[in-house]
């Protein structure tokens, strides 16, 4: 893949028939949010949902853009980070929508990272049995992954995203300039989902990341354009083929069986999502070797790339029993059996069950190696 052939402003389509939508990637797009909503036929009042950090950085610009297009705007702000992804905060957002008499035709705009996008999408899916919403993602994770595909929801103490709905946005409006204000830890965490796409679907993209990781980390213009576009293309293709995760979409969950268990065990405070996914990807690749699905060089390449991106890759101190119990809440569990996404080679994964005994043996081996 050559970075020089990548135009910065581009569009990717999520092909889902009447639920299909564009992903527009364009520097400066925040200033056009109002005009884009007009293009979608939005009328009346807009609910702009964001978190406290993003409100300070970008809400004035987006509110001005919406007002220029003739909209009345009601700003709804939640705390920053994973602690807002709860039923309690969902209730507070819904309270405001009710009190402010938002109507069925009112659009919600999710301005922020994956937390704001997942929470707003879920609120949009249930308020008046469904109001339209638009994603305006401002983190790497949100621009390459969470804003696309319609998985919305909130966490439960015992498991990640256990309460939610499939509900597609009307459009995804990506302004890559917003990434400039992200803390390094958040940029790095976002790269876990980017590396994931290489492992599950595109060996050339994985190789591109191996060769350009420092440019990507510096948010170099061409590298950023390449990463956002290719990630959105892969996600859009998978979602277009299997919207509700009947089968193929499960590949997007690579690294998440263990990753989500680690997030829940840390009460959603010790690891942020991308970090947990990075550890999960390396661990699940290593487990895939143990299960006989791939060779050790695959784990080595994934671990080396994660390390080069500055991601954590070692399992934290946690008991095997607690891990296994937390993994029972994975949405890929079928009749009590945990199904994992296992790399076969870079660019190809397979989905298969893992038994408790296999997990226990692998876990004991890893613990011994790291002792
Ligand atoms: N729905 C999906 O398909 C999907 C996919 C991947 C992840 N997710 C979910 O997304 C969440 C993680 O998303 P995230 O990493 O974006 O987390 P996040 O939404 O918590 O954002 C991370 C932090 O960055 C701040 N921030 C956001 N944009 C900023 C900017 N431009 N400049 C400075 N600071 C900014 C936020 O205030 C927050 O503190 C998790 O809950 C995960 O489960 C969902
Ligand atoms: O879009 C998907 O499908 C994914 O699995 C993408 C993941 O990166 C994302 O974290 C998703 O929210 C996980 O979904 P879940 O169904 O395991 O909660
Ligand atoms: Zn994820």
UniProtKB/TrEMBL annotation:
Its cofactor is NAD(+); Co(2+); Zn(2+). Keywords: Amino-acid biosynthesis, Aromatic amino acid biosynthesis, Cobalt, Cytoplasm, Lyase, Metal-binding, NAD, Nucleotide-binding, Zinc. Binds 1 divalent metal cation per subunit. Can use either Co(2+) or Zn(2+). Residues 76-188 form the 3-dehydroquinate synthase N-terminal domain. The keyword Nucleotide-binding applies. One of its GO terms (cellular component) is cytoplasm. GO terms for biological process: amino acid biosynthetic process; aromatic amino acid family biosynthetic process; chorismate biosynthetic process. It is an enzyme of class 4 (lyase). Pathway: Metabolic intermediate biosynthesis; chorismate biosynthesis; chorismate from D-erythrose 4-phosphate and phosphoenolpyruvate: step 2/7. Its EC number is 4.2.3.4. Residues 190-333 form the 3-dehydroquinate synthase C-terminal domain. It is found in: Cytoplasm. Zn(2+) binds at residues 193, 256, 273. Transmembrane segments: none annotated. It comes from the Bacteria. It catalyses: 7-phospho-2-dehydro-3-deoxy-D-arabino-heptonate = 3-dehydroquinate + phosphate. Coiled coil: none annotated. Its main location: cytoplasm. The keyword Cytoplasm applies. GO terms for molecular function: 3-dehydroquinate synthase activity; metal ion binding; nucleotide binding. Catalyzes the conversion of 3-deoxy-D-arabino-heptulosonate 7-phosphate (DAHP) to dehydroquinate (DHQ). NCBIfam families: aroB. Belongs to the sugar phosphate cyclases superfamily. Dehydroquinate synthase family. This is 3-dehydroquinate synthase. It comes from Nitrospira tepida. The gene is aroB.
């Amino acid at each position: 893949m050559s970075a020089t052939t990548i135009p910065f402003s581009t569009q990717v389509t999520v092909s889902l028939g009447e639920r299909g939508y564009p992903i527009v990637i364009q520097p400066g797009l925040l200033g056009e949010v109002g005009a884009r909503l007009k293009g979608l036929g939005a009328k009346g009042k807009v609910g702009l949902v964001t978190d406290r950090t993003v409100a300070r950085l970008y809400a004035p610009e987006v509110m001005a853009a919406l007002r220029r297009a003739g909209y009345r705007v009601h700003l709804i702000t939640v705390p920053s980070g994973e602690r807002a992804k709860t039923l309690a905060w969902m209730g507070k957002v819904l309270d405001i929508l009710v009190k402010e008499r938002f109507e069925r035709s009112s659009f919600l705009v999710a301005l922020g990272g994956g937390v704001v996008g997942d929470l707003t999408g879920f609120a949009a899916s249930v308020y008046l049995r469904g109001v339209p919403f638009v994603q305006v993602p401002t983190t790497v994770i949100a621009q390459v992954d969470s804003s696309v595909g319609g998985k919305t929801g909130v966490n439960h103490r015992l498991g990640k995203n256990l309460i939610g709905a499939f509900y597609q946005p009307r459009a995804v409006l990506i302004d890559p300039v917003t990434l400039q204000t992200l803390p390094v830890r958040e940029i790095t965490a976002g790269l876990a989902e980017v590396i994931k796409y290489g492992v599950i679907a595109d060996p050339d993209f994985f190789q591109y990341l191996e060769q350009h990781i420092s440019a990507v980390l510096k948010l170099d213009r061409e590298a950023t354009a390449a990463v956002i576009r290719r990630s959105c293309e892969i996600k859009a293709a998978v979602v277009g083929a299997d919207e509700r995760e009947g089968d193929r979409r499960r590949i997007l969950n690579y690294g998440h069986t263990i990753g989500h268990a680690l997030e829940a065990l840390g009460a959603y405070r010790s690891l942020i999502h991308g970090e947990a996914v990075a550890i999960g990807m390396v661990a699940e690749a290593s487990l895939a070797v143990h299960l006989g699905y791939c060779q050790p060089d695959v784990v080595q390449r994934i671990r080396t790339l994660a390390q080069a991106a500055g991601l954590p890759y070692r399992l934290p101190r946690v008991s095997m029993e607690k891990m296994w119990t937390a993994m029972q809440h994975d949405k890929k569990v079928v009749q009590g059996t945990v199904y994992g996404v296992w790399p076969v080679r870079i660019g190809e994964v397979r989905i298969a069950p893992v038994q408790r005994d296999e997990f226990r043996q692998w876990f004991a081996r890893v613990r011994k190696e790291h002792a």
